[in-house]
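[recover] target loaded
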């Protein structure tokens, strides 16, 4: 990576370009360009899949043949990825070992107490209680219960008087409450402004709206809400047929940006409604950005 950076830096200085000049040509920041020239691959650890694109743009801006740099760059990226994987595995092993050591230290052997057998005194007391309880139950059923039943049996039962039904009496009918017609679910309306900009209406403010991205070709995906990068979905390269959903709770003028590292063949829906992506974007074998603004009807 350092050799690539030296080649690019020497060529830039040979052409008399400053980093700011190259930044305007490539749309890359001067910080990114400086990291490339210094061979600082650690700077791109979160955007590693984009590094080859960055170097290509830089080389093209300086009229250099990118293919001459490709093999060296690929080898550098592969070595860096392998190093990161080995480091992560070692960290995981250290964490597991620490957990096992803590568990071993925290385990305290417990002593099992032997229960003492039932002694004669306890047995005699239990037997006495059982006998007394039996006598009380016998006395209740033979003496007390018949007395209670005799007291409740009246000598003369009162006559039951039935009032004849009046002919003018009418039965009252209970009316079931009228069912209100169910409200039909509103559908979002997607209006195309130009190839990259859309307006979305027909949503309920504060309720979930789901962007469902249809990945046909592997692509980097990155989503912003009101210029702030969203943590979900995670910015990374997604493979074909991998599920990518973006859930927002929009208000009026909420702005959503979706960045594709590779736009060709990929598409999306909003709450089940298909977004008609312009052919100039859907057929693009490279980066593309789609913008969605939520507006009132």
């Amino acid at each position: 990576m350092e050799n690539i950076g030296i080649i690019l830096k020497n060529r830039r200085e040979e052409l008399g370009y400053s980093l700011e000049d190259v930044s305007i040509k490539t749309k890359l920041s001067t910080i990114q360009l400086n990291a490339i020239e210094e061979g600082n691959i650690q700077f791109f650890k979160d955007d590693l899949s984009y590094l080859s694109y960055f170097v290509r743009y830089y080389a093209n801006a300086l009229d250099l043949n990118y293919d001459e740099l490709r093999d060296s760059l690929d080898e550098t990226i592969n070595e860096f990825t392998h190093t990161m994987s080995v480091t992560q595995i070692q960290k995981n092993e250290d964490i597991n070992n620490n957990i096992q050591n803590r568990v071993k230290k925290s385990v305290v052997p417990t002593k099992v107490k032997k229960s003492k057998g039932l002694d004669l005194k306890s047995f005699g007391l239990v037997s006495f209680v059982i006998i007394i309880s039996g006598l009380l139950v016998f006395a209740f059923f033979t003496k007390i219960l018949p007395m209670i039943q005799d007291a409740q049996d009246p000598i003369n039962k009162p006559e039951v008087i039935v009032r004849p039904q009046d002919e003018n009496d009418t039965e009252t009918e209970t009316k079931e409450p009228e069912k209100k017609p169910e409200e039909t679910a509103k559908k979002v309306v997607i209006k195309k402004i130009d190839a990259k900009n859309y307006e979305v209406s027909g949503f309920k403010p504060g309720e979930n709206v789901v962007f469902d991205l249809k990945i046909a070709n592997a692509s980097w995906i990155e989503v912003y809400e009101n210029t702030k990068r969203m943590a979900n979905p995670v910015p990374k390269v997604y493979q074909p047929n991998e599920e990518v959903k973006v859930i927002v709770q929009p208000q009026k003028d909420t702005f959503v940006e979706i960045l594709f590292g590779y736009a060709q063949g990929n598409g999306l829906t909003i709450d089940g409604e298909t977004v008609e992506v312009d052919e100039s974007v859907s057929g693009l074998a490279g980066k593309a950005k789609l913008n969605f603004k939520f507006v009132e009807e």
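[recover] notes: The chain has a mean pLDDT of 84.
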